[in-house]
Design goal:
single chain, alpha/beta, seven-stranded mixed barrel, about 60% helix
């Protein structure tokens, strides 16, 4: 009876050891009889991930986390992922460590990199190693929230100090000034609008006048073109050519006449010089005429002779028979 009890006790102890070993292996992700695939991922930090945590793909558990180790250089953490079923990875896959539940359990999930555009992933040293990123846990979020709360409190306090009653009055005065400036700007804009309208009207009037002048110029050109197209213009041009030839001939003749006039002027100059010499001789009393001009007695005698000659001429005219005898054979 004692031997039987000892055998049962040993069997129970062995069963407990076996169950403990199997449970431990199961918790560590060991697979019993199935094919396993081990992949590795590197992280800047591993967060709270532990061996045996779940590995998921699209929310489905596909394996367990295996060994976790720090790289020799200390810059990266390497995590083994033991996959218990085949997984078709997405394009550019990454491993993201995050909270699985509110009780502190973590998980590793395989996802595409495009789902985390702002996350920082390390560059894997091997080609078959996936990059990974650990999301902050609740404690880090709480610390960050406390830091943000403190910053908001400081900001609120500084905001209250900055916006005192005096600041409020200054802001109100500034608003009034802005309203005055806005009113002045509105009036200025209205005045400028009126001036612009006047300038626009003036420009429109000038444009109309320019258009009218252009039309008149175009009509004038058309009239000139129609005038040039008339047959009379050809005859006028021919007449102008004849007149031009005549003017050329006249110019040449005038050139010869100018030579004659020049010679006549030289002859007249000689005549005037001779007259000047004669007058000079008269003035000096040379010759009969000069003595006549200078001697009053001779002038009186000459005058008396002229009177007698005049009386003789009158008598001859009145009594021609006394002086002329005509006989006819």
């Amino acid at each position: 009876m004692t031997v039987y009890r000892e055998a049962v006790l040993g069997l129970v102890i062995m069963s407990a050891i076996l169950v403990t070993a199997v449970g431990t292996l199961w918790l560590q992700g060991a697979s019993f009889g199935g094919e396993e695939q081990t992949i590795e991922a590197v992280f800047f930090e591993a967060g709270q991930i532990m061996p045996g945590n779940a590995v998921k793909f699209r929310g489905v558990e596909v394996g367990r986390v295996g060994e976790i180790s720090v790289e020799p250089g200390g810059a990266l953490v390497r995590v083994q992922l033991v996959l218990q079923q085949p997984v078709v990875f997405p394009d550019d896959p990454v491993v993201v460590l995050s909270l699985e539940s509110l009780f502190g359990d973590w998980e590793a999930e395989i996802q595409p990199r495009s789902g985390f555009p702002y996350a920082e992933f390390p560059v894997p040293p091997e080609a078959n190693t996936l990059p990974g990123h650990a999301l902050p846990d609740i404690s880090e979020l709480t610390v960050t929230a406390d830091r943000i709360s403190d910053n908001l409190a400081v900001l609120s306090e500084r905001f209250g100090i900055a916006f005192s009653e005096e600041t409020a009055r200054n802001v109100a005065s500034l608003i009034d000034n802005i309203e005055d400036v806005t009113t002045g700007l509105s009036e200025l804009v209205a005045q400028q609008a009126e001036s612009f309208a006047e300038v626009t009207d003036g420009l429109q009037l000038a444009t109309d006048e320019i258009s009218t002048a252009a039309n008149q110029v175009r009509d004038t050109f058309e009239d000139v073109e129609s005038l040039i197209a008339r047959p009379e213009v050809d005859s006028m041009i021919d007449n102008l050519a004849v007149v031009s030839g005549n003017l050329r001939t006249l110019t040449e003749e005038l050139g010869g006449t100018n030579d004659q006039v020049r010679r006549m002027a030289a002859h007249a100059d000689l005549t005037f010089r001779s007259a000047e010499l004669a007058l000079a001789a008269l003035n000096s009393g040379e010759g009969t005429l000069g003595r006549l001009l200078r001697d009053s007695t001779m002038a009186m005698e000459f005058e008396s002779t002229l009177e007698e000659l005049s009386a003789l001429m009158e008598d001859i005219r009145d009594n021609p028979n006394r002086y002329v005898r005509l006989s006819i054979f």
